[in-house]
Amino acid sequence: MSARSRRKLFLGSIMLSFAVLMTSQEVQAMHSGQNISDMGESNYFYVGLNYSPVFSKIRDFTISESSGETKAVYPYLRDGKSVKLETNRFDWSVPDPQIRFKNSVLLAMEGSIGYTMGALRFEVEVGYERFKIKSRYGKGIRGEESDTIYLLAKELAYDVVANKTDALAAALAKVKGQDIVHFANTLKIIHPWINEQICNRGKDYLSSGLPNSKAGSCDSKDKRDGKLRQSLTEALGSQGAQKWPNINNGDEKLSGGKSDGKPYALDASATVAGDISVLDRESKVMVAGLLARTIEGSEIVEIKAISSTSVMLNACYDLFSEGLGIMPYTCIGLGSNFVSIVEGKVTPKLSYKLKAGLSYKFSPEVSAFAGGFYQRVVGDGEYVDLPVKRLSYDLSPQGRTKETAVAKFSMSYVGGEFGIRFAF
């Protein structure tokens, strides 16, 4: 049975039960001669409480850091361990997973207070809905804390794991020299074998082709014994911070001749990008994580649920039937939804509500009602200034990792309402 069929069966069974209850009460009223709609023409205050299961329509959900530099969103890896905000704990093979939300069924209560003037009613209604995030592992898989955490990655990290070599070369060419040197030095300390695989293609003095190979080859300085020290850090040399994207192609003499390399004369960003692109998958993830930590920064957002507290001013019309306790009603409302996506931030949004149903008076003071409604949040669908977290060991320059994120989505929902009103 589909989810839609289950919803129809759920609502239908409740409406049928309510209809049976109203019929039995009407029969009792006819036997007793009591007219339970005597209050149809009077004015009175009332309070209401109802259960309102909601089926969400949260669509096109996206999130990025506040300046719009996010290139991809990566989910946290579910590994059964405690959550650690480290780059290797995210699934870099799944960019931009679909972020979806459950229905609000358990925590779905509304309350109202209003005033009736004959067939017209005006009420202030307060409701609460909570749409928990769905597990990306599919139905039947219990959600975990890790399912709520996402990494917002920028251009360099994304280009590395997405194998976008040309885009990576263009992005590397724009990086400040001091930043690339910082990255290379950190890479040499943490992952020295990767450092040695970048800019490693030159030949020693005993092999042919050394002079020609040095032209734009991202080689390093020559040593007097005719050997080459090759790595990204060696290629950057002593002036990498000032000269990048140009690199040191060597200008020292070999043991048997003179190098014809021209130091810091050629742009090596494409060569570095090409060397990174041929690394194995695990090494690429390490490079991407280190680029995020040392150069461009990245943000982490935790989305447990979208919760909404709505405050609506409703205008309703009750269609009285002489001698009957059953009253159809219809309402239109305007108000605000106070929406929370991450802890610590609530955003008010304009919204409207349409609802219709049936009410039944058990006595002049007590009535029950059942109906359905549609509610929609209007506007641009943008939720700004959402707090984010930093990666562990974030060494990026001040300001690269942003303090906030922006989410965009459309939000509407349909549901039922089943409750009691008390007149006074």
TrEMBL record:
- Protein name (database record): Outer membrane insertion C-terminal signal domain protein
Pfam families documented for this protein? Surface_Ag_2
Q: Where is the composition biased (Polar residues)?
A: 239-249
Where do the Msp4/OMP-like domain residues begin and end?
Answer: 42-424
Please give the residue ranges the record annotates as the region Disordered: 236-258
What SUPFAM superfamilies has UniProt attached to this entry? OMPA-like (SSF56925)
Specify the superkingdom: Bacteria
Q: Which organism is it from?
A: Anaplasma phagocytophilum str. ApMUC09
Q: Which UniProt keywords apply?
A: Signal
The record's listing under Gene3D superfamilies reads: 2.40.160.20
Q: Which InterPro entries match?
A: Msp4_OMP-like, OMP/PagP_B-barrel
Residues spanning the signal sequence:
1-29
